[in-house]
Design brief:
62 residues; 0% strand
Length: 62
């Protein structure tokens, strides 16, 4: 359900999903039983503190 919403949103707005959308999508896949695991903090490929700060700057205010 969440994944289909992300696909529709990104197609309509002509943009890539952000950091938080990617994390939410992965958590949904894990919950559905994909066998994936979240990366540990500081491991290669995991989001850095800098990435989270940048995502917070570009987040839309509600």
């Amino acid at each position: 359900k969440l994944l289909s919403w992300l696909n529709i949103f990104t197609e309509r707005n002509n943009m890539k999903p952000g950091l938080y959308a990617n994390i939410a999508a992965k958590k949904a896949r894990i919950k559905a039983g994909s066998g994936e695991k979240m990366r540990k903090v500081g491991s290669k490929g995991a989001p850095t503190a800098k990435a989270f700060k940048q995502a917070a700057k570009t987040a839309k205010k509600k």
